[in-house]
């Protein structure tokens, strides 16, 4: 379980997160939605250690992770998949995936086993292992980004707009990947502009506004919420 308590964080020009309180249940797929500039991506950056909270704290289980260096947050089992362009285009698919295991680089046996597990989870990795990542389609690249993040067998996966720029077929692959992460026991916290898609693959939903949490509910409950529907979905289908 991730617990965020009274977090204030920002970029120098002031706090973007204005006393954020949030609980992410272990094993859930939690989708954060909200208007542009609400601070959704900032939540992910604060969780992964890229931004340090000015006030408040973040716990992973019993362990306080706010204030840790990003590499130590990663070692604690929290990995972030960046919004886009996260791969090295001239390196092969295999090399890109293996980079994800860098923090465990001394344990070669573990990395070999983990790579094999991931090729079973994402067949595209084995099919295109020797090709430069830059030759893949957007959807295929997203699979490689996921596989790279999963190399350390994380407890928590942070996804920033996983649907961005993808066609419907690639969205299906994202849906399947998130389901596979959940089946593997990982907790997924995701930010999505495509609210219908995000809540469709989530178990829980969080609505943010102006750096605070406005509302949390099950994903189903939020999808059926008329006010939220009017705000984000162009009305709830009846
Ligand atoms: N690197 C940065 N430096 C300075 N200000 C930033 C930076 N990144 C974001 N901000 C500001 O922080 C605020 C929140 O941004 P954030 O990206 O967290 O919002 P968001 O809810 O993810 O929005 P969007 O849906 O548009 O991605 C915005 O006002 C933005 O201009």
Automatic annotation (TrEMBL):
One term of GO molecular function: ATP binding
Keyword set includes Transmembrane helix: no
UniProt entry keywords in alphabetical sequence: Amino-acid transport, ATP-binding, Nucleotide-binding, Transport
UniProt-listed PANTHER family: HIGH-AFFINITY BRANCHED-CHAIN AMINO ACID TRANSPORT ATP-BINDING PROTEIN LIVF
Family per similarity comment: Belongs to the ABC transporter superfamily.
Protein name: ABC transporter ATP-binding protein
ABC transporter domain location: 2-235
CDD domains xref list: ABC_TM1139_LivF_branched
Protein source organism: Lentzea miocenica
Record flagged with keyword Transport: yes
